[in-house]
Design brief:
The protein starts with a helix and ends in a 7-residue tail after the last helix. The longest helix has 21 residues. It contains three helices and no strands. Helix 1 packs antiparallel against helix 3. Its EC number is 7.1.1.2.
């Protein structure tokens, strides 16, 4: 129950931050995010793995 509440919230937060910074939903403008926002990309990738129920992310 705890991970079900935290993981989707983290994903929505990451998408909201991306939209707020870039003001677009086109994926082509999202290139190079690791170099400009490394913390956000780390949170986004770990949340995506947790959403897929990878081992060690529960």
């Amino acid at each position: 129950m705890l991970s079900h509440g935290l993981v989707p919230s983290a994903l929505f937060l990451c998408v909201g931050v991306l939209y707020d910074q870039l003001k677009t939903r086109l994926v082509t403008y999202y290139g190079g995010l690791v170099s400009t926002m490394p913390n956000l990309s780390t949170i986004f990738s770990s949340s995506t793995l947790a959403n897929m129920s990878s081992p060690g992310t529960h």
